[in-house]
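Reviewers asked in the last cycle whether our approach scales beyond single polypeptides. To address this, we selected a multi-component target totalling 643 residues and predicted its structure end to end. The input consisted of the following lines:
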Amino acid sequence: MLIELTEISKTYDLGKEKVHALRGIDLSIQRNEYIAIMGPSGSGKSTLMNIIGCLDVPTEGAYNLEDVSVHSMTDNQLAAIRNKKIGFVFQTFNLLPRANALHNVELPLIYSGLSKRERREMAEYSLVSVGLGDRMKHKPAELSGGQRQRVAIARALVNNPSILLADEPTGNLDSETGREIMSLLTKLHEHGNTIILVTHEREVAEHANRVVHILDGMINEDTITRNGMKAAEA
Amino acid sequence: MIRNIFESAKIALQALWAHKLRSILTTLGIMIGVMTVVGIFSIIQGLNSGFIDLISGLGSDVLYIDRYSWVMEGQEWWEVRGRQRITLDQYQYIQNHSRLASLVIPQVGTGSSVSRREHSLEGVQVIGTNEHGLGTGFGPQNIEEGRFLSPIDVERRRMVAVIGERIAETLFPDIDPLGERITVGRDRFLVIGVLEHQGNALGNDFDTNVYIPYGAFLKAFGAWRSYTIAVKVRDPEQMEDARIELTGLMRTARRLKPREEKDFAINNQEMLLNFYNNITRGLWAAAIGIGGISLLVGGIGIMNIMLVSVTERTKEIGIRKALGAARWHVMTQFLIESMTVCSLGVIIGMGLAAALAVGIDNATPLPTSISLSWAGLGIGFVVVIGVIFGLWPANRAAKLNPIDALRYE
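The resulting structure, written as structure tokens, was:
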């Protein structure tokens, strides 16, 4: 099992009151799944994504990622997990504005301690594979929204992570560009990547094979989509 | 590890380059601090070498009986200005009665001019003394060619002169000065010796000294000047006894009544050394004080700008953390950045100090110098200030929670 969440709870202590963002989530995700996590704002889906992405730790419960328990790891151990096993794609792209596309994609490799030459090769390969071979020296401001998100995807993929975690990847894009990005994700899934998509748009979620609905910090519904059925039949 | 440090340095330089004006302003404090410290240090160094040159001629076993103290010892100028001059009779008296002295040397001097045919030199120092007068005052210790005054020159008040190197060069551009005649003041003197090159110390050019027998000085320049009596003490262990003996002899020679205050001074090299050390102690204190304060202010400036930088780049820190930057990555990045700002200040400050030193060297008699060891000192500053004042901001950045940092707008 790639991801195994058991009885995950997250409580924020705001002094007077306690906010229960997650209340006992059980979720298993297998390798090469394409899963969408849906829910209205305040449902806890962002908190869940942060925990899956090792940006945050649960208050209670167990999280095993590739059979390694990450729920009790230190800051630095989590950083290493994020670096090697997780690729993030954010709604707002989160590229470094002063660095060009190539340098942005190289960043995770810097933190894994690769040599300059290796970094350069891997980053170039990753950018070419998202169709930006001719935009490597461009800074984010010189790129369109769709291109920026492609850079972000290239960056997420460059370390060959176990999971690609996309948080509202089309939220800041027009519908045309959004569709392009979604088909890129579908293609990546077909090539064997595991993709976890967080969204509130049904249309976007339908690209996934499985949809998990979160409501009030609990899993409300866990269904296989039409895509997923087709895939299962095939 | 090393690779990451280089990477951080590069990131830091890019960040600094993006805020050029801010970086320069931030480093102003460090710049001024380094300039002050290095500037004052180089002045002290210059003073030291100049002072040592100056007093090297004064033996530590020589006492100088003078009308005034070389170093004002609490008296005001108006209290001592009426003192009687020290005369040749008093010199003779010391010569005849001192038991602890090995040599007694009269010294009298005046500013004058020398000339020979169309060549002349103004502002020379004419010194009347005896055959022991070389090397017991300020100035050269050795003869370059010819000889110094002989006992017979002194006894017979011969009109002979031993001249400094610059005088020889100026008055005798083509010929050997020995055996030639020059005019000192209004009288003709025979050149019998040329002194070794000495150079100048703190504005005193020792190569324009002219030594003549004190009797000849009397004839040429009159008898109204006060003398200095240099007394070489036979046994350096007996300096204090000699001082007491000389005080007694001088009181008798000057016919002071028992209750009268002494109206002369007994000077020695040590007094000048102490005086000098007091002055430079003050300079050191000033250097450390001013330098310390401006480096503190500079350091706080750097801390401030680093805090601003951390806040401004919270989002960037969040992104880096999400992509796998560990605490130490972020920490090093900001520490290196603060050290980079710091080195900018130190480099500019050292440059300014070097310029200052060269300026002082050219504009004043102070020989200032900047040595390579200041560069080492500079690196020390960079590390200490950069780390001390960068630590808190860098730690703050390193400890940021990645989610909060990512959400920061």
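Chain A has one domain: 32-55+85-233. We regard this as preliminary and will revisit it once experimental data from Aim 1 are available.
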